[in-house]
Design a protein that fits this description.
Elements (H helix, E strand, L loop, with lengths): L11 E3 L5 E3 L9 E2 L6 E5 L7 E4 L6 H23 L4 E10 L2 H4 L8 E10 L6 E4 L12 E4 L6 E7 L6 H4 L5 E5 L3 H9 L1 E3 L5 E4 L6 E3 L12 E7 L5 E7 L13 E3 L4 H15 L14 E5 L2 E4 L4 E4 L14
Parallel strand pairs: 6-12, 6-14, 10-11
Antiparallel strand pairs: 1-2, 3-4, 4-5, 6-7, 8-9, 9-10, 11-13, 15-16, 15-17, 18-19, 19-20
Length: 328
């Protein structure tokens, strides 16, 4: 079926076999009827005006016409796919979360690296039957087109929305629903394409839940990659060095949970992290450091509160402090 673009209102009609036919495929010798009101349509195939179908009598409402055309278009395309064993493509969004080493450095179990990736399905693999305006015996509802499998385990409602969106009653059944918004002949062409995506604003998907995935590393930009991180190191002289960078730039070959954490950490948690790092970086306590002293508390920009001296002291004060004693 040819489906060239057209801005004309009545671009489709049903031929003698009940097949939706575009005006570009129409013949003067054939008879056609309106999908909306079932009255005769005459193909206007002149050379001056745009080709179109003309109602022999008073035109039916455009809303009714588009709604009927939409149902016929999807049903025709789906039946064609089943008979020819060709796919009907549906692209949904799948949530993927990264559970890798980089995310662990954030030290917040509620933080998630999330992204959405396309999840493509061949609908004919799930639904091998299509029924037009068939009442669902289970729910008592009548979708515009009902898809189901032979075993009766799966169903999908297809709804054509011209002015009236899918009812909440249908959505609440939990049955997967695809609602197509149809406003023109171009939208009918989209239905005839057999390739649908929720990225298209003309398609709403209800009760479709592609299973989420957990991966070890991000396939693209990390959604928490801009979190500011402190990466600590110990120089040959025993001095602490802090390098600040976004999580996405942390080198996992040289950085780990031991020496890297969010810059937002403060107070007792920050002091404890630094103690753990010092013990790891200087296991033999070659460099006296106030951070590991029993008298020290609360780290703040290189200074600690010393209980023995009752004042703040630089962390290097331990090198000449008689009260220095390593906290076991």
């Amino acid at each position: 079926m040819t489906t060239q673009s057209s801005s004309i209102q009545y671009a489709y009609a049903l031929n003698g076999q009940g097949t939706l036919t575009h005006i570009s495929d129409a013949l003067r010798s054939h008879t056609y009827t309106c999908p909306g009101c079932k009255s005769p349509l005459t193909p206007v195939l002149g050379e001056i005006n745009a080709k179109h179908f003309r109602h022999s009598e008073e035109c039916c409402a455009l809303e009714t016409y588009l709604h009927k055309c939409g149902k016929e278009a999807f049903f025709y395309r789906y039946q064609q796919a089943l008979s020819r064993a060709v796919p009907i493509s549906l692209e949904l969004e799948r949530r993927v979360s990264c559970n890798g080493a980089r995310l662990a450095l954030v030290r917040d179990k509620t933080s998630q690296c999330l992204e959405s990736v396309p999840a493509r399905y061949n609908m004919t693999k799930f639904f091998d039957l299509a029924e037009l305006e068939k009442r669902d015996k289970t729910t008592g509802l009548q979708p515009d087109v009902m898809l189901r499998d032979t075993a009766g385990k799966r169903r999908c409602y297809i709804e054509i929305c011209v002015t009236h969106p899918c009812s909440q009653e249908k959505i609440d059944t939990g049955i997967p629903i695809l609602e197509f918004k149809v406003q023109s002949a171009a939208d009918i062409q989209m239905l005839l394409s057999g390739s649908y995506s929720t990225k298209d604003k003309r398609l709403n998907a209800f009760n479709w839940r592609p299973p989420s995935q957990v991966v070890d590393s991000c396939s693209g930009p990390c959604s928490v990659g801009n979190v500011g991180m402190s990466v600590w190191s110990l120089s040959d002289s025993g001095r602490l060095n802090e390098q600040i960078m976004p999580l996405a730039e942390v080198d996992l070959l040289t950085s780990s949970y031991v020496n890297t954490w969010p810059r937002s950490l403060e107070g007792a948690e920050l002091a404890e992290n630094l103690r753990t790092f010092i013990r790891h970086a200087d296991p033999h306590a070659l460099f006296p450091n106030c951070i590991t002293c029993q008298q020290a508390s609360r780290w703040e920009d290189g200074y600690l509160q010393c209980r023995s001296k009752a004042k703040q002291v630089p962390y290097t004060e331990a090198r000449q402090c008689a009260s220095y004693k390593v906290d076991a």
